Every structure is written in C-alpha cells, then in structure tokens.
Fold this protein.
Amino acid sequence: MELDQDGRVFALDARGRGLRSLPDFLLDGRLGLSLRQLRLSRNALDTLPPELFTAASGLIELCAADNELGVLPDSLGEARALEVLGLASNQLTALPASLGELAALRTLRLSDNALTELPAAIGGCGALAELSVARNRLHALPDALAQCPLVALNVSANALVWLPKALPVSLRTLQLADNRLTELPTTFGDLRALETLNLSGNRLRALPHSFGKLVALVTLGLGANRLQALPAELGGLGALRTLQLGENRLTELPESLGACIALEDLGLAQNALCSLPDSLGKLTALRALVLAQARLVRLPADIARLATLQQLELSGSKLEALPPEVCGLRALRSLRASDCRLAALPDALGALSALQVLRVDGNALGELPDSLGGLCRLGELWAGGNTLVALPPSIGELGELAVLSLTSNRLVALPVELCACARLERLLLDDNRLASLPDGLHALRACVELGLSANLLHAVPHSLPPHLEILRLNSNSLEEAPVWERVPRETFLFDNPCAAPRSAGRRPLVAVLLPGLVRSYAHGAHWRAFFARYAEAYDLRAFLYVWPIRGAVANNFSQEADRAAGEPLDVHRLEESYPVRRAGALPLRRCLARNKTHPPRRHRRALSSSLLTWRSGCVRTPRGSTGASTTNGRCWRAATR
C-alpha cells in the first residue's frame, strides 16, 4: 500500500494473496478517486465485481493477471481514466462492448485466455498503443482495429486464417507467429513504420510484391512456413538486419538479396537450397549465416568477401569440401560443418585466427591439416565420427583448447605434443584403436574428463592429470588393475580382463534417457551397440523420448532426413530396438509438442523424478556419431550425471 502526500491510498498491491473475492473497502467507495494503481495478479478471483469500476473510477492501472476470470462486467467502461489493463492468463472467452469506452487506454494485455474474437468496439480505444492477445483462439481480427493508433500488436499462437485489409499504419512491432495464415493482403506494404515482423510458423506460400515497401523493417521472421520463392522486391529492405527463413521450401534466393546491405543475421536452415546467389558476397555486414540441413553442394567464391562473418553453420548439408575462400573469413569464431560429406579440410584452415569453435564431426575426414596449430584461439574441436588415423603434431600449439572430441575414429596413437595443451579440460578419445598413451598426460593439469573406453589399451600411465574427475577405461584389454596415487572420482573399468564380473544381484539400477530425436535407424544401431556394451555391468532401464523439432535449430538431429528418404519414424520399431531389461521400466514415449526443442514441462518433471529415483548408478552417453554435440544430447547427459 502506498500513500500520497495527503495520506490517501493511491497504490494497492495485493498480488499472490490467495484472494477469492475483493475486500469491501475496494467496493464501497472509501478509497474514492485517490486509488490509481491496483494489482491483483496471482490470486483466485473468478470475477471482478461491477462496483469496482464505479467505486474506483480514478484507476489508471489495473493488473489482474493469473487469476480465474471468465467474464468482465459491462461497468468496465466507467473506468474512463484507465491507461493500463492487464488480464493475461485468465479464462476469458469474450470482452464486453464497453471496452470501447476506455478512451485513455494505452496498454491492453490479454494473452493466455480463451478469446475467440475481439469486439468491434475496440476501435473506440483511441489511445491504444500496445495490444497483446497471444495464445488465444482468435480466427480473425476486427476491421475496426485499424482505427487504433497501435505501435505493438502481438497475436501469436492463435488460429488466424486471414488478416484484415487494413491494419494500423502506426505499427512498429507485429507478432503473428504460429497461426494458420496462408497469404498476406496486398495492402500489407502500407505498414511502412514496421520495424519488427514475425510470421514464423504459418502456412504462407508466397509474399506479396508490396513487401518491398516495408523500408523500416529491421527484424523479419519467416521460418517454418511453406515459401517456395521470395519476391525480388525483398531487396528493397535496406534497413533489414535479421532475416530468418529456416524450415521452408526455398530452392533459390533472389539476386536482389545482396541489396540488403545492413543484414547481419541470415537463417536459411532446412530448405531445399542447392546453391546461393553470387550477390551473397555483397552482404558485407553479415555476422551469422546458418545453412544447416540444406542441399548445398558448394559455397560461392564470393563468401570470402563477408569480412565480418562470425558464425557459419553448414551442418547436415551435402558439401563434399570447404572452398579455400572460407579460410579468408578472418573474423569467423564458429564454424560448424557436422554430418556433411567432407573428405578433407582446407590446408589454409590455420588462417582462421579468430576461430573458437570448430565442429566437423560425422564426416569422412582421414586427417586434419598441419595448419591446425594456427588456430590460436580455438577452444573446442569436435571431430568425432570420422576416419582419422593420426593427429598432426601442431595440435600441441592450441594453447586455448578446452574440449577435444575425437570419438569413433581410427586413431592408433597420440602425438606427445598433445600434452602441451595446458588448458584442455575434456579429452574424449572413446571408440578408437589406441594401444598406448603418451607418458606426459599428467601435464594436462586442467583436464577433468578423460574418455578412453572401447580402445585396445593394455596398460595406462601411472601418472594422471592431477584434477581428473572422470576416467573411462571400460571395454579395453587391461590385464591388471591400474594403480594411481589419486583415483578419479568416477572411474569405469568394467569389460576389461582385470575387472571382476559383477553379480546380477549387485548391479546398480540406472535409467538411461536417450536423445529426443533419432537421426536414422543406422544411428539406432549405434545405440543398440552401446546398450550391449553396458549390459554386462548395469541393469539398464531405457527411456526414449521422440519429438519433432520445428524451426532453424543448431543441432544434428532432424526428421527431415528420414522424411526425405521415405522412411517415417516408426515408434514400434524403435521399441524393438530398445527393449527394456526388467519389468516396471518406463516405456517408449512420443511427444508431438510443436516448435520445441525439448519435452513439455509436465513431461520434464516426470523424467526428472524418475532419474532422481534411479540415481544409484551412472552411465555416460556415447559420443561422436551419436550426436553428442546437440542440445538434446547435452541435456540428457547432464540429467544422467
């Protein structure tokens, strides 16, 4: 409660008090015209009494979000001084016509209700600048909305199938994502003040030619639609900085795109692009270029002109080689080319002196270039799932390297220079052909995780990195149990000749949460081998969560590849691939949550509860071709730890 200089109440905060009805002093006029702010959020109110708006007609701000309101009284129009009305997260199905009498109303928040329409009387709100009705059930917007001087309009996650011919020309922000729009009106270009426009998650097949008139547009989201082509007029968006076109059906881009010289972020993931226009090199302000899971077989030579490019995402494309011009991108910090068809990396790769993350896992690389040592700022190198036999000695020059993943290769030895990487924290060498290790491993003082499972080791050095916490030596050929001065906190030695077999009654019970998307059934075979390897030491209970990912995502999992191959995701077949080992195990589940890269909250709570119950053991994910680089892989690995 806040008082003014005369001792009268002008602000009352009653949020989160469990109120089911309003106290009498708010309804009997005792507060008179002095009450200006009333906050009633997070209560259990199912109605607002009509007397409230007559007794407190001087209200300027009323917030009653997160309640159980189903209707609003007609007396709402008597609060003519009201400027801010917050009613989000209620159960409103309709609004009274008296809403149009609120001539001073500037902000109206109605998100997360059950509204099916907006009253035509809303056009009477002559001062309305911000309207949010996201996550309702609207099928259309009233024509009278054009009479409001709106600056921001959020109608995302409704059921809109069309837009009125006229919208407020004063709009600067328009959110229309996740609706059912199939086309835009030809007059859409009249919104010349528009700066942010989000149309992602609709059913648009084309854009009107008037789109080029949106000259003030800075951010444009068109992902997850059905666009097959872009109008040439798109090049008229000279102020555009962010353009997201992921998950469409684009086969080519217009040459006029090069006229968007202010463009900094261009997302083109999950399209059918086979090539890029030569004008791409004119986008000299570009900082991020995402081309994941496209059909690209080459990059244009003009890519070298993108002097400010910091992020280049090519994962899942059909590239067989990176052009030498890529090595001219001196500002590049992140280069991701996982799961392509790369047989070699450019010899001049070391010229990328600003590079911090390099991902080339899941390719057909037989070697890494000697110039690798020139990547003086490289912090992460992921090269698992290739055919590497040896590492270049120059790898010891990577003084900033913190993560080195070389799982699922054919390495037979490690260069002694590797021990010079003083900042290396995670060294992952699982599933290779190593028969020995260099004696200088103890020099890796920052190393906390060392993965050596599924190799051919007969012995390990007596000196280990001093701060090592996780050591995987399972599935090797160790005849004698190693002896160390300091044993890592988590050491895995099972499936070695020196490891005594565990009795069935003493096996720890472990829940294994598999990644949410399986890239292919060949990928599933890798997981079956993983299960077979750990079955001797653990009694496994598997939980496989399957859900589709929408939008442009920076990971390797996608059902697009399965769909393109005509091989749909078969849940029953996956159940056979991952049989449970004892009664009571959780079954395979399928989640069809749209536009999410993780399970819904209610399912995550159930999974977390199960994992907390089954915490007597610990299992690590196989790296490399299992997609450990993905967000999903990281999430489930963290959960099992």
Q: What stands out?
A: The mean pLDDT is 81. Helices lie at 51-55, 521-534, 560-564, 571-577, 601-613, 631-640. DSSP finds six helices and 26 strands in the chain.
